[in-house]
Amino acid sequence: MSEQVAPPTAADAAPAEPAVETPQPAEPQAAGSQPAGSAAAGSQPAEAQAPEQEAKKPGAKKALKIAGAVLVFVVVAGLKFGVASAIGNYFNKDETADAKAGDCIAELPEVTGTEQETVDGAKVVDCTSTDAAYSVVGRVNDQTKAQANADTTCEQYFKEGEQGYIYSSIEPGKTGYVLCLTKKA
């Protein structure tokens, strides 16, 4: 028994393109090319988009790699050059940075003799406050750690026989300020 191939029915043979056609001048066709109305011509825009999308993906990946490298560089540079310290100072603000003679400081740890002690959380308070423990009698700016540790830094601000205290805020390798304090009466 032999099989026969029949042409498609009218419903199957409906054209894929719109029913209204615009006449266009005929173009010479190269050997092996298909006519302008064929299915390949309808798929050309999709084929043209695919290479553009493929071209964008490697560019996006490259841009992402560059952005990642820049971010790593900024983080490393920030850690090396003290951005972290600046951010830390913003959140741990030195509340005595603007203290001047006549201000009062809240209670600090008791230090006797020539001992030195690290203090966190020192702050300026109203002199009428019950928290006021020390009076600022002098301030010396632009001091190194060695200058702040010298007994002569606040000598001019203390009266003879008066017990004086020195409070300093100096980052290692930099200069800072020294507050000359006396116990509040």
Regions with little confidence, pLDDT below 50 for 5+ residues: 37-43
Number-wise, the strands total 5
**Shape descriptor:** elongated
How many H/I helical runs? 3
**Termini Cα gap:** 124 Å
Task: Going across the biggest sheet, name each strand in turn.
Answer: 2-1-3-5-4
Strand content: 15-25%
Q: State the helical fraction.
A: 25-40%
Secondary-structure element series: HHEEEHEE
Rounded radius of gyration (Å): 41 Å
Structural class: alpha+beta
Mean pLDDT: 73
Short description:
With about 180 residues, the protein is α+β, with helices and mostly antiparallel strands. Strands 2-1-3-5-4 form a five-stranded antiparallel sheet. It starts with about 40 loop residues before the first helix and ends with a strand.
Notes on the structure:
The chain is an alpha+beta fold. It has 3 helices and 5 strands. The chain is elongated and about 80 Å long.
List the helices and strands and how they pair.
Blueprint: H1 39-81, H2 83-91, E1 104-106, E2 124-125, E3 132-143, H3 145-149, E4 164-169, E5 176-183
Antiparallel strand pairs: 1-2, 1-3, 3-5, 4-5
